[in-house]
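Data card: per-record layout.
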Amino acid sequence: MATVSHDSDTNEDEQAETTLRVLAECGVRTTWCMIEPGYSPAIYDKVKQAGHELAFHYNALEKDGGKWGAGEFGRQLAVMKQAMGLERVVTNKNHYTRMEGWNELYEWCDNNGIEMDQTRGSSKRGNVGFLFGTCHAFVPIAWHTARNRTFRVLELPFFSSDMGTGTWADASIANPILSGVERVEGVAHILFHQYHLHYNDHVRQLFCQYIETAQSRGFAFWTAAEINDWTRARRSANVTDIDEHGEAAVSGSVAIRDLVVWVPLAERPGEGAGTGRQGTDTDIALKLGVPCRKQVCRA
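The structure for this 299-residue chain is written out next.
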């Protein structure tokens, strides 16, 4: 799985128009993190019509007029919801990935209906790659003062910003990142600012090359909201039983079509007849070191 996000930052309509054109040429839908005051209303209509996700870009950076605080988070989100004409905003990424403390941001997300955050990512020169140890959407855990409880929001890290600007990474990181994500069946999340896609020909070229490379390797591009909905639906699925034929009974997965369940084999392939259904070579794979058979549960 792959996803691309954009941070609107300077909010120039021309940057948005260029980005929309490039995305249409590449055939991908992306997540647009919008900072106050945002674009002109007509731009939001075009972004929605193209199937992209409109998200929030919380500004807590003082030099850009922002402030760190629960009230300010809620105020900015309300302003941007009204500007974008949305009742529900799923995703947030903090401007410059600014983060304080441990619990605050996740508490604000939970209290304001944000279901996915993307603030954990690269923001400094050379600061790219698997910085937070995963490429999966994960559940943040509170500090011990809150008894290590879990939050409702999911965190989806990103690995790099704007290949080709000379500030972060160049195109050489693309295949290593895709390989690492592919190995653990995670999400390849790269950030490209509309600003650089508009003003920098080299960034535009590398963006299109990256999309082509990822697609040629079998990666499908989803928005952050789609990944959020899929992750939550997947986590709601429970295997309640495995019958004598090795078929799993699954509950809580009504929102998922063609859910895949990996059922551990009674014996390793070639070690005996066994009592359960063993499957063919094409639907057997090692999962966490255990040989499993692939079962597709139809909705």
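Known properties of this structure: The longest strand covers residues 290-297. The radius of gyration is 21 Å.

See the next section for split statistics.
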